[in-house]
Each structure stands twice: as C-alpha cells, then as structure tokens.
Amino acid sequence: MRASRFAAVAATVVVLVSACGTSDDSDTSSSGGKEAPTIALFLPESKTTRYEAFDRPLFEAKVKALCPDCKVLYSNADQDAAKQQQQVEAALTQGADALVLDAVDAGAVAPLVNQAKRAKVPVIAYDRLISGIAYEYYVSFNNVRVGEMQGQALLDALAKGGNAGKGQIVMINGSPTDPSSADYKKGAHNVLDGKVKIGREFDTPDWSPDKAQQEMEQAITALGRDSVVGVLSANDGMAGGAIAAMKRAGYAKLPPITGQDAELAAVQRILTGEQYMTIYLDIRSEAEKAAELAVAVVRGEKPAAPTQADNGTAQIPAFLLDPIAVTADKIKDTIVKDKFYPAADICTGAVKAACTREGIQ
C-alpha cells in the first residue's frame, strides 16, 4: 500500500482529530439550522496498534475536512462482539446517519446491519467483509494477495538461507472470527502447499500476541527446536509473540518470520534481523476512502465502486487496495520515504547501526 505522506499532514491530523470527536446531539449545521449529519465509526480492538494510531485519527480528520459540520461517533469494541453490538445499537439510537463498521465477528453482525437497514442507515464494512446480508460498500485490501506475498516471502527466505525443502514451518493465522484472516490463510496456502511441510498451524483468537507466543511454544515442544525453519505469522503483533517464544527456547539464530501492518516495533525487528518482512498497508488510503464514502452516503450520493466482493449473500460494491511486501532493503524506499514513521522514530538504540547499513537517516 503506497502509504501516505504522514509528515506533511501530521500537524493537520492532530488538530482535526481534536476537533472532530463525538459531539453533542443538539449540535446543528452552521448553514441553516439543520442537525449535522452523524457518522459512526466502529473499530474492533486496540491490541493491533494501527487502529488507534492511524485508522481512527485519519478517518476523523478526513471526515472533518470533507464535512466540517459532520459529527463522528467513535467506538472501539476491545475484541468484544457483545460490546460492539451495544455500541452499534447505541449509535442507531442516537441517530447515526451512516455506520462504518470493522466487525469483531464479521460473520455474526448481519442482524446489526439489518437493524441499520430498517432504519435506512447505510453501512460501510471497513477492513473486514461482513457476510450474510447486503449493504452499501466494503473498503479493505486485497487480502488473499497479502497471504500470497507472505507465503512467497517466506519461501524466498528459506531458499536464501539454504533451508528450502528442509525442516518444517509453523503457521500462526489470525482470528477465526475475522474473514480477512481466512483470506490471508488462503493466500499463504496457495503459495506454500506442496513446497514446504507445515508442521503446526494455528488460528489465533483475538489476533493475540500472547496467544501466538503460547502457540509457538507448543509448536517448538511438539516439533523440536531444530526442525522449525520458518514461521508464517499473519501480522506483526503475533510475530512479536512468536519471536519471544523462540528467544525463550534458546534459538541461536531466529528462523525467518513474516508479519503485516508495518508496526514500528516490527520495522525495527526487520532492520535488526529478528523478523524477515512485513506487509505494508496504506492505512491512510483505506481510512480516507471509507471517510469519503461515509460523507457521500450521508449526503445521499452513491459513488461507483471499481469492483465487487462476494460475501456469500450479495455482491458488495468494493474498494480493494494493494499491499506491499517490505524487507529490510525496502524500508527506506517505502515506509521511510512515505513518512509512515520518521527515521528518528525507527533508528533508536540498537537499531541505529542497522539504519546506517540500510542508508536510513
């Protein structure tokens, strides 16, 4: 994902975010006394750092830029489906005019979407494809392609290290309630099956790094430390958990491990050699596209979508963005160039020498 120019907008984001949180329902538009449109944003959890650090502030800032009088109701479910249900119902009760929903359990929220439909409130599925019902839009990334990139990167690393066709790998997939996780897994299997032996595979509840660490410990115990030659982790947080398990098991050299989200800690691990790669997602483009659509639908507009996503019940108009695979040699020309993180934030402590080696300053 050809990520955003964060530095150029950082100050703007800070100012706008502070101005566009949840407002009192009595607020009215400055252009005629009509109550301002209300857009409700629901994010699933905060263990993955991207949601609070990027998705929320970028979404809120874009809404404010496009619609200064629009109000944003924000809720984070902390990976609790029941809590998210209460949040959605509360937003509908408060008169939300559009819902942007990143579902904790995307296979179980059709009744909530149906409540919104009965109230004539348009719904935009954000990041995770909601199944079982039709709705207005879906905004996400090409998730199968993400898994394919992770799988291919792991194969490349094994070949580079002389371990192609040797030993076994461990697959640490994401939450079984997240349909994106199934897509990542499908993409990875598309590449890995028949080319490497998968010794253990886990679906990790809540995308939890702690649970990923436990899974990796189980895999090392079952397979033997020396037989594990690589790890397919679906995101960076779980990669951190798996790395902690391998360090605890006494690996002299860590086997290659994949990730996703370009979390700051993961970028630093890639530079120091603890993690092999991450998938760089243009979260700004995703958040801003969702904001654009939300503003459009509260104004009664219906923008055309470039493609559709099959959710098992309907073909959902979709905007699917492209991922980028990033290894140490690509950090300078992607994450740093796009100012996703300032070089000063990356190149701290023990990472400074690695930054110098890769020409990052």
Residue-averaged pLDDT:
91
- CATH overall fold name of the largest domain: Rossmann fold
Largest sheet: 7 strands, mixed
Low-pLDDT runs = 1-33
Head-to-tail CA distance between termini: 22 Å
How do the strands line up in the largest sheet?
A: 2-1-3-4-5-11-10
CATH architecture of the largest domain: 3-Layer(aba) Sandwich
Return the domain count.
Answer: 2
Question: Roughly what fraction of the amino acids lie in strands?
Answer: 15-25%
CATH class wording of the largest domain? Alpha Beta
Rg: 21 Å
Q: What coarse outline follows from CA principal-axis ratios?
A: globular
Record field, number of beta strands = 12
Classify the oligomer.
single chain
Secondary-structure-based class equals: alpha/beta
Order of helices and strands: HEHEHEHEEHEHEHEHHEHEEEHHH
Helix segment count? 13
CATH homologous superfamily descriptor of the largest domain: Response regulator
